[in-house]
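Dear Dr. H.,

I hope your travels went smoothly. While you were away I took the liberty of generating a structure for the chain from your last submission, since the lab meeting agenda had it listed for discussion. I wanted you to have the full record in hand beforehand rather than looking at slides cold. The sequence, exactly as received, is reproduced here:
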Amino acid sequence: MQNRKIYRTYIGLVFLSLIMTACKLPTLIQKTENTTVPEDFSAETSSASELIDWKSYFQDPNLTALIDSALANNQELNITLMEIAIAQNEVQDKKGEYLPFLNLNGGSGVEKVGRYTSQGANDANTDIAPGKEFPEPLGDFIFAANVSWEVDIWKKLRNAKKAAYMRYLSTVEGKNFMVTNLIAEIANSYYELLALDNQLMILNQNIEIQTNALNIVRLQKQSAKVTQLPVTRFEAFVLNTKSQIPLIKQQIIETENKINFLVGRFPQPIQRNAEDFVNLNPSKLSIGKPSQLLENRPDIKQSELELEAAKLDVQVAKAQFYPSLGINANLGLQAFNPAYFIKAPESILFSLAGDLMAPLVNRNGIKANYKSANAKQIQAIYDYEQTILNAYMEVANQVANIDNLTESYQLKSQEVEVLNQSVTISNSLFMSARADYMEVLLTQEEVLESRFELIETKKSQMNAMVNIYKSLGGGWR
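The corresponding predicted structure, in token form, is as follows:
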């Protein structure tokens, strides 16, 4: 009796020492995420921003049709949807780990041991019933239920499930961010396509003007008013302008195919109306307060959820230091003949066992995992802060960009108007021999460049409209 008490005391001290040892955890790096942002994007007071549906924001029906098709057929987006499904299944997997496992077991077998063995000799002399020897060979039939359960004392399994759920939500936000980027990329490519169409129209218009000037110079040459040199220079200028047309056409083909790729289809013409491109006015958005970025930007939400998952991973790694309690139970029927299943309680089998295990030898590996989880948490904090900073910078840049592009477009429009007048004036002066051909060529070249720059400025305006929409987190609701 005394020996039994000493044995129990010894076992208790062993487990107590294991628990006390597990409580001596490594020191972790401590850092708290900083989510403060300036109060305003600019000195002006801004109203609250609201997420607007992309169908309401983009008015061009051809563009909205492309976006609608891309949201259904874009391969990268569909790959992301499958990643969401995988993350959802991982949540279910983690949820099942902290619930009891119930298994049903049915089986049969037969065994014959040698008579001249200790077991065989013993069986031969044992009657299972009066006048009957032990069956030979011996059958074995079993039908039982087995329950195994790791008691989640330290919330290790539940925290792992929560971390998987956070990562599932993170993949959803990642999909939302991808949708926003996809919409923006299609819109920017669409406006680039319209700009290229307008540049092609400008080239054709300029070629017509230059050809008319060339014909005039040729007539003057025939009447001996000018030499062959102006004729040659005008011909070279017309050819130079014509040489730009194949390059623009190639850019149009590549931009169309880029859009087709985003839409998830093979090359085909893109429906569009490029004639009113220069008259497009960018849609206006209420910028709102910077703090609203934390609510509207999917990438910020994604980083925040990844951070929460990383914090839970630290708790899961911490729980590895503590003892784990497992419970196993069996209940069923077993006999050498199925007919004896009905004979209870002789055919009933049951067992109940509990295991308490604590790490002792491999603590260095557990410490390493614990420190790694902590380092990944700190990494997630920096990533979260960087995402917030990047979002603020994107909006601040686009706010300034929209204002500056508006002013630039107005000035560039005035420049084009003035240069168009100069073309008319230079042609008149050349016809009256008060200006030489170089002034005419130079003026035509300047107006061509300025009209190209005007189209580029308009494209930049439309791109800024798209980018501010993306920067504010719109496009996925």
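Two observations you may find useful: The CA atoms of residues 169 and 305 lie 7 Å apart. Residues 43-49 have pLDDT under 50 and may be disordered.

With kind regards,
E. W.
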